[in-house]
């Protein structure tokens, strides 16, 4: 049997390991920087979307229906896009409801004016009927007095001619 010998250079392996460690550390620093920058960019984008959505909701709560949402926001397919589209639907429904209320109140005002005119006409007609009835009653009273006078004269002449 023989002894097998291997030439083992520990220093070169140590240098390779140090070099690998530096490369790994450099890659870690680069990735950490990229992730930090990406996180800041995405968090800013998300916070702007949240702010715009909450501003729009606040305006809706105060019944400001003149506000509008950008087409870009409405085209988004993420959660904020869904939220903004829902808020836009609420705004549109408010506007439609207010339009219906305006139309109904206009109809009520028109009907009220018609009822007022009809009431005024009815009041005039009732006044005329009352006046006519009063005239008829006065004439009937005059007729009754004339009839009574005639009856008294007839009775007076009848009693005088027979006596």
Summarize the structure.
With 163 residues, the protein is mostly helical. 87% of the residues lie in helices and 0% in strands.
Throw out a few tags for this protein.
3 helices; 163 residues; single chain; mainly alpha
Task: List the topology elements.
Blueprint: H1 10-61, H2 71-75, H3 79-162
Helix pairs in contact: 1-3
Describe this structure in words.
Keywords: Membrane, Transmembrane, Transmembrane helix. This is Methyl-accepting chemotaxis protein. The chain crosses the membrane at residues 20-42. This protein has three helices and no strands. By secondary structure, the protein is an all-alpha fold. The radius of gyration is 52 Å and the shape is rod-shaped.
What is the 3D form? rod-shaped
Strand content: under 5%
Helix content: over 70%
Sequence stretches where pLDDT stays below 50 over 5 or more residues: none
The end-to-end span amounts to 195 Å
Summed up, the helix count is: 3
- Total E-strand runs: 0
Radius of gyration, in Å, reads 52 Å
Output the structural class: mainly alpha
């Amino acid at each position: 049997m023989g002894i097998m010998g291997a030439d083992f250079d520990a220093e070169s392996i140590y240098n390779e390991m140090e070099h690998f460690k530096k490369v790994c550390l450099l890659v870690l620093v680069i990735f950490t920087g990229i992730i930090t920058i990406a996180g800041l960019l995405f968090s800013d984008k998300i916070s702007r979307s949240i702010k715009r959505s909450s501003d729009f909701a606040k305006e809706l709560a105060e019944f400001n229906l003149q506000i509008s949402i950008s087409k870009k926001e409405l085209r988004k397919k993420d959660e904020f896009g869904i939220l903004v589209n829902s808020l836009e639907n609420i705004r549109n429904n408010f506007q439609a409801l207010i339009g219906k209320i305006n139309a109904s109140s206009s109809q009520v005002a028109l009907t009220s004016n018609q009822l007022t005119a009809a009431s005024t006409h009815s009041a005039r007609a009732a006044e005329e009927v009352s006046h006519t009835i009063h005239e008829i009653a006065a004439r009937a009273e005059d007729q009754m007095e004339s009839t009574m006078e005639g009856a008294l004269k007839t009775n007076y002449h009848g009693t005088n001619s027979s006596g």
